[in-house]
Amino acid sequence: MIMPLIIASVVVLMCIFSSKVLYRFGVPSLLIFILLGMVFGSEGIVGIPFENYRIAEQVGSFGLILIIFYGGFCANWKIAKPVVGKAVAMSTLGVVVTAGLTGLFCTLVLNITLLEGLLIGSIVASTDAASVFSILRSQKLNLKGGLASLLEIESGSNDPFAYMLTITILSLMNISGEQSILQLLIFQIFFGLLIGFILAKASSWILKNITFEIEGLYPLFVMAIAVLAYSLSSWIGGNGYLSVYIASIIIGNSKIQNKKSLVKFLDGISWLMQIMLFFILGLLSFPSHLGSVLIPGSLISLFLIFVARPIAAFGILGFLKVPLKHKLFVSWVGIRGASSIVFAILAVTNKAVIQSDIFHIVFFIALFSVALQGTLIAPLAKKLDLVDNSSAVLKTFNDYQEESNTKLYELQITPESYWVDKTIMDANIPDEILVVMIKREQNVIHPKGATMIKNGDVLVLSGDNFDSVIS
């Protein structure tokens, strides 16, 4: 027991410090963690034997739940609203187009069956949210025209649709399937949306109206909701990942207590899940097998980058009147990552008969994509003059708090004040204004969402514009 704990601790520390060195250069965390896993794997320097796809699938699914939840919880809906339609079009129709084109390419060029080709296309159809978030934050890369929000929403929401396509193709490959494909799709979408929405609304109400005595219970609560959204939806035949994303984006954009601290906690958990997930996937791979998939993996990667993704991006965004430079950039930011590898493991553990070494093919595609596309995102954005230096990219995340030009203002609460006898949560205080302190008689109160504002209170506010409050 002691030695596994030592190894786990060393691995996490190595991931953290290697990320610190390469993070500033825009190298996605996925590449770092997977390569470390390969170093520790059975054919690596350390030589840890690991070939259990079942365990890897369970660990991967759990990690993906929390990564998807973090992505939705952090997405600032107010900032993203103008580009939501474009992002959803890319995460749904874009996934279908990418999967279909890639599947046909695999069938025609690699001489495999149509269903197996479509299976590979479905598995690699979604983009990696963790890498996109990491690059945007590390490079402080805010983009013009709402492109940052578009990419965040797309990469965070397309995993459920790629998963749905993957299990649909697997169902078609299993001739003895008891459930019709149409019924499968209806159940996936309907129950995925329903469970996510119900749990989100109930959770938002609880977080808004009920104060937990121990502040550390808030993160545990949202983690339990994330896992419950996935498991309950999957149990009744819905799309668990869709439920997780719907729940997370609704909860994250509701007025709840301790939101900023929850984002910080989820950020840490998401990084831990990335380290655990990507390291295990690297551990599961055999570098000697990569040689046999070098040609098919390279061909599929190049087709994805230069044909399938551009056709999807230009076709959809062109119809929506998006400028040429924006389409070029979106077509490039199609990084394949953790979800693709997890879905590949799902295919390997499925009872469907698959002829190709689908795990190592997808593993190679993810490495190729991250190494090439991931490292060139920032230079390409600058080359296309899409970098917006007038504002911070962190505004697209829910944990953003403007630090510059902030001022303090004292507001006296009178019987005529709109906020009197209301909690801070219910007072409709503008998002850009923070109540940092309440002076009540001789006492100083550190406010929470459930703190009641009373007549005679003096509220100490932080912000850069108090016109809405004064008026």
Straight-line distance between termini:
64 Å
Q: Give the CA-based shape.
A: globular
Mean pLDDT: 84
Strand order of the largest sheet: 1-6-3-4
Number of strands: 6
- Class by helix and strand content? mainly alpha
| Count of alpha/pi helices | 19
Report the uncertain regions: 400-405
- H/E element sequence: HHHHHHHHHHHHHHHHHHEEEEEEH
In what range is the share of β-strand residues? 5-15%
Main sheet?
A: 4 strands, antiparallel
Characterization of the model:
The structure is a single chain. This protein is mostly helical. It contains 19 helices and 6 strands. The chain has helices at 2-23, 29-40, 53-74, 77-80, 84-109, 114-123, 129-138, 147-157, 159-173, 181-209, 217-235, 240-252, 259-284, 287-290, 294-319, 324-332, 338-349, 358-383, 467-470; strands spanning 407-412, 422-423, 434-440, 443-445, 452-453, 458-463. Helix 2 (29-40) packs across helix 13 (259-284). It is globular, with a radius of gyration of 24 Å. The model is unreliable at 400-405 (pLDDT under 50).
